[in-house]
Design goal:
- The structure is a single chain.
- By secondary structure, the chain is of the alpha+beta class.
- Helix content is 44%, strand content 18%.
- Helix 3 crosses helix 4 and helix 3 runs parallel beside helix 5.
Length: 192
């Protein structure tokens, strides 16, 4: 015979029963649930739907977790991190949205490229990356490597060119050239 009573999941998606904590799927965190206890099993329901089943533990202060229960939470966290990176990328330039669409069309993992470009903006600054995105869009160069190359080329310090001296044609006509001393060659010829 099973005992039925209402329980509330914690924000860490656990239900406390007899000093032990049992996991429920992460999407049911902080929700009101129903627990059915039998001597062998603890079954947890939401709206008459079984959401978790654990073997009953008679030890005290134990945490019993089904490895599948946190998967949805980890997926949400990953998507939230990815969404934050994509939003940062889109805020770099008015062209960023179009650049992202082209990345999706031409690259297997556009998020990888977006992540690298956002990291480049932390190194080189958003204005430099925005300019590189504009230029890369014009040249149809859709990759984080292209952006990195543009930024690297622009960050190099080239030496300042010196003053340009032009000679006048009339100055070339007035050149004085000393005649060469050929006596050295004449001495070598007599010795042989």
């Amino acid at each position: 015979m099973a005992t039925v009573y209402p329980v509330r999941a914690t924000n860490q998606f656990r239900v406390a029963i007899d000093t032990n904590r049992y996991s429920v799927p992460a999407e049911y965190a902080s929700r009101a649930l129903i627990a059915k206890l039998s001597p062998e099993w603890i079954c947890i329901y939401h709206d008459d739907r079984l959401i978790a089943r654990h073997g009953r533990c008679y030890d005290r202060h134990r945490d019993i977790e089904d490895p599948d229960h946190p998967k949805q939470l980890l997926l949400w966290r990953k998507k939230a991190r990815e969404q934050t990176i994509v939003m940062r990328f889109l805020s770099l330039s008015p062209r960023a949205a179009g650049y992202y669409r082209k990345l999706e069309q031409r690259r297997m993992n556009p998020y990888h490229h977006v992540q690298k470009i956002v990291a480049l903006s932390e190194i080189y600054g958003t204005e430099a990356v925005a300019r590189a995105l504009e230029d890369a869009f014009v040249f149809a160069a859709f990759s984080c490597e292209y952006i990195a190359n543009l930024l690297e080329q622009r960050s190099r310090k080239l030496p300042q060119p010196g003053a340009l001296h032009l000679t006048r044609r009339q100055d070339l006509l007035e050149l004085e050239v000393e005649s060469a001393d050929l006596s050295l060659y004449e001495d070598n010829a007599h010795e042989r």
